[in-house]
Amino acid sequence: MKLRDIASLVNGEVTGPPEADNLEITGVSGISSAREGDITFLSSERYRKYLPACTASCILVRKPIEGLRMAQLMVSNPQLAFAKLLGHFYIEPVKPLGISEHAIVSDKAIIGKDVSIFPFSYISDNVSVGNGTIIYPHVFIGQDTVIGEDCVIHSNVTLREKVKIGSRVIVHPGSVIGSDGFGYVFDEGKHHKIPQVGGVIVEDDVEIGSNVSIDRATTGNTTIGAGTKIDNLVQIAHNVTIGRNSLIIAQVGIAGSTEIGDYVTLGGQVGIVDHVRIESGTMIGAQSGVAGNLIKGIYSGSPVMPHRDWLKAQAVFARLPELHKKIRELEEKIKELERRDQPA
Amino acid sequence: MKLRDIASLVNGEVTGPPEADNLEITGVSGISSAREGDITFLSSERYRKYLPACTASCILVRKPIEGLRMAQLMVSNPQLAFAKLLGHFYIEPVKPLGISEHAIVSDKAIIGKDVSIFPFSYISDNVSVGNGTIIYPHVFIGQDTVIGEDCVIHSNVTLREKVKIGSRVIVHPGSVIGSDGFGYVFDEGKHHKIPQVGGVIVEDDVEIGSNVSIDRATTGNTTIGAGTKIDNLVQIAHNVTIGRNSLIIAQVGIAGSTEIGDYVTLGGQVGIVDHVRIESGTMIGAQSGVAGNLIKGIYSGSPVMPHRDWLKAQAVFARLPELHKKIRELEEKIKELERRDQPA
Amino acid sequence: MKLRDIASLVNGEVTGPPEADNLEITGVSGISSAREGDITFLSSERYRKYLPACTASCILVRKPIEGLRMAQLMVSNPQLAFAKLLGHFYIEPVKPLGISEHAIVSDKAIIGKDVSIFPFSYISDNVSVGNGTIIYPHVFIGQDTVIGEDCVIHSNVTLREKVKIGSRVIVHPGSVIGSDGFGYVFDEGKHHKIPQVGGVIVEDDVEIGSNVSIDRATTGNTTIGAGTKIDNLVQIAHNVTIGRNSLIIAQVGIAGSTEIGDYVTLGGQVGIVDHVRIESGTMIGAQSGVAGNLIKGIYSGSPVMPHRDWLKAQAVFARLPELHKKIRELEEKIKELERRDQPA
């Protein structure tokens, strides 16, 4: 594909050596592994060091970088252009496979057009699968569960009964949606199970990583808002509500009935207690612990505090042994001063 | 169902508007989503705010709440009554399906009465499955594994060889019981695998969440005591022993050979090192880290300290920058005092 | 098996009661559960207390332990000898099962000799499976994925497309290799997916625990070096590189593009941010958080600091309330001194 055609695809402008427009682009690659024929992109400033030795034919940039020999393609959002080109070069259009004879699909299930249902998947009564959806092998779908259009449900996924999945949702392998919430009543020395009879709603354009656990509600629904993206190994407890377009990084745990707003970012391994509310737009640093409601802001620490305060407190933490010593010295000096101060 | 019949089911007493006994109850729901016809329950004090607008027909209470228009049903444990009613209204009795012709069950396996074995499950030689147990699709059960009566083994679960599961045990989707413990000997620059030839014992009435990992013992057994409940994404290493009726919240990790007593509660994301002992009745706060034996108590922090001490230390932590400044001021003042104190 | 034959198997020397060479050894067991006929081993100094009451017939030791009645078998590495004997006594040689008629194996897949492919596994086009490899039930293997010789792929594992697995690799149940990395571009209020078109390389002799998530690279490869061992529920993001013979303990999370050297040990629940580099030989304590590059050393804390410094700072942390009080007392004393110091 000629660079000029790529420029037109991503709405960009070519600069660089003469005849750059005519360059043949054969692949898309990250800066550290790009080779001749590739178009590349600086995903992190830390990678600028790879530029001098990089033999890629072209780089996506917002503004031209001085002193580069390779062609440059100026676009308003280089990462977005990079994503578009990856899709263009490497993602083959889906050819629907239909329903495998080795799958088990209930007569009472409603299956849309152009679906692919792989062998060894099991689809229960009254399930609905929308047009264009792909269901890989070893997927279990429980009764009355509804899946929208153009979804991808990867292998070994479990969607239990009464789960509602929107359209263009991706669920990566090994994830579980609709397992029972962790609810017990303690009585006479034992934990008695509280039946978990609610459901789960996953709205449009949600992506759920691998080995994620999302529990069904006790009553009502656990809800994941449209456009929210969930990384691997995340725990979402019963009756949690997550808003739209939030990012939940790997290994986060959110306890029961907690409400997360829109455009919230939870860093890796963050833990949030039950029954609290995190306002839209909040960002929480990796490994933080949240034990109460949070208004919009940037937070870190376990328990969390405003990120700037945490940075300052953490800086002093590292110097605690030194401060401790200083306090002992001050004590000595004061004792000395007090002694001198005594009337003779 | 008439409220009077519900009262008799949960051993409660109706108060409220005249004719309340005759109210028709058609559902059970949490306070924020309950509607007319529902019986509800205040699961958290934080939800009291929903009471005025709640249109439920009846609420389960320990003592009457003043000023409510809806009927009230007094019981000794409202949450227990709520659990009972959820089961009564929403859980259908199990109709055993028998053994699917699409499952593979060894001729040498012993299968009880009234079992349900779904398609695509695989049951190895010498496995025993007790009466009334349900095995969902895509379950793998290894040789010599024994499962008791009335268990539910959800989809995509792996129970490897020589695992013993008691009765009334529930295992949620994606969990793995009996994977090899993480044991190696370092010799001549390499990690050599220590064969993990022990087993796992899961006693009666245990519930195990989704995507949980419980490793088999090196020799002997990893043991989960009767009535213990384990949440999602928990890691239990080889040779761990957990007592009876403990609660292990999501994403906890317990390292090898550690012993946890009875009625222990481990908060979410707690980590416990290997070869330590946690006494019965101990409670450990979320995200805490345990590096040594613990006598009965309430603990928090990483590493843990008694919870009260941790609260106090944590309160000072937030003020460290301020304390740091104060120490510098004190230093200045003392220098000034020392200067003045010098003989002229 | 006579003790003298065991001695010759592990290259050891028998001491102890007369005729010890002739003892019949019938099993191998840990110190707390060993019985007559067993050979045992002290896996932890904490277990020395079990020695007096232990009825094992023989113990593996580096140097003779005084005052023991049981026979002793001196070897240069008792744990290594223990591992060897466990394998010798309990691990049966594999009998290849061939390809189950209940598995689905593409005509375009290349399957080696002496393989075992269990029922309900699904092997896509252009997959290659090396000699002697075992694939348990419910395994999904995507297109173009290559698996070496003598691997064990446990049940419910997903290996997506274009994954390269070396030889003698073990993957425990429920793990996922090759799921999409967590990559999005934010534009006009939405997160747009960056196609993840790279692969994963898992080199020889790697062991991967249960319910582990290893994401494929955006472009290029996520790489796990030869001999590295990964425990359960670990998260490895796209484009991460792990060197050789490292140990990654349970529930660790490693963010995108981070590079881990050789012989690195990451304690349980450690979190590491994206785009950093951890030098070979580094050890990081459980629950630590890494936010920048690390040169070889031992680290703890979140964020990490050198382990010794962390121990000292943590010791002062516990005493913060006391220090706080002391600072207030010092302030009072200084005020008093200042007052006295005022000219009358």
Let me know the CATH homologous superfamily of the largest domain in chain A: Hexapeptide repeat proteins
Oligomer: homotrimer
Low-pLDDT stretches of chain A are none
Query: Strand order across the biggest sheet of chain A?
Result: 6-9-12-15-18-23-26-29-32-35-37-38
Number of domains of chain A: 3
Rg calculated over all Cα atoms of chain A: 27 Å
| Outline type of chain A | flat
Characterize the main sheet of chain A.
12 strands, mixed
Greatest interface by residues involved = A-C, 67 and 70 residues
Strand content of chain A: 25-35%
CATH architecture of the largest domain in chain A: 3 Solenoid
| Strand tally of chain A | 38
Instruction: Please bin the fraction of helical residues of chain A.
Output: 10-25%
**How many helices of chain A does DSSP assign?**
4
CATH class of the largest domain in chain A: Mainly Beta
Helix/strand class of chain A: alpha/beta
Roughly what is the average pLDDT of chain A, rounded to an integer?
Answer: 95
Distance between the termini of chain A: 97 Å
CATH topology assignment of the largest domain in chain A: UDP N-Acetylglucosamine Acyltransferase, domain 1
Which descriptors would you attach to this protein?
homotrimer, 344 residues, alpha/beta, Udp-n-acetylmuramoylalanyl-d-glutamate--2,6- Diaminopimelate Ligase, Chain: A, domain 1, UDP N-Acetylglucosamine Acyltransferase, domain 1, 3 domains, ten-stranded parallel beta sheet, 4 helices, 38 strands, 16% helix, flat
